[in-house]
Design brief:
Blueprint: H1 5-11, E1 14-19, H2 21-25, H3 29-39, E2 42-49, H4 53-59, H5 69-76, E3 81-87, H6 91-99, H7 112-116, E4 125-127, H8 131-141, H9 155-158
Antiparallel strand pairs: 1-3, 1-4, 2-3
Helix pairs in contact: 4-5
The structure holds inosine-5'-diphosphate and magnesium ion.
Residues 63, 68, 72, 102, 120-121, 123, 126, 129 line the site of inosine-5'-diphosphate.
Length: 160
Amino acid sequence: MLQDPTVEAAELERTFIAIKPDGVQRGLISEIIGRFERKGYKLVAIKLIVPTKEFAAQHYDDLSSRPFFNGLCDFLSSGPVVAMVWEGQGVIKYGRKLIGATSPQASEPGTIRGDLCVQVSRNIIHGSDGPETAVNEIGLWFKPEELVSYTKNDEKWLYE
Ligand code: IDP
Ligand code: MG
């Protein structure tokens, strides 16, 4: 079989996904995880955590000059968050497609935000927006030993 090393590397791509406090409180954990799982991505880390406001501010560091920053950090630290790492070919970019646009009003039906929420400040899910952000966010939320490498039975049916 011909092996293209770039494809192999891409399959190991990882992204950070978080179900925000509104998604947890609204009982959408399994719905959201199910969408990533059914697509064919592999869950490599997961935990339930109530972030401190300082931690939330670190996570949203790039938005610190925005008027909604304080409210956003208050909100992210207001209750349990499901922090996850998902792996798969193209998962960073396609994960964002599954999530939809930042504003649920602009998200297409069929996307997580398009189907399941209404307001930009209560948009239920976070996903890394690029390879560099993904590495940084995974490093912020997880210790290396919390990431589990394993072979999933369906990989031979998802990838040739
Ligand atoms: P993203 O979550 O789609 O990557 P970002 O622009 O990175 O969107 O913003 C981070 C989060 O900040 C959004 O998911 C949303 O919860 C919140 N946010 C973004 N824009 C606004 C706004 O105009 N008002 C209130 N909250 C906002
Ligand atoms: Mg973002």
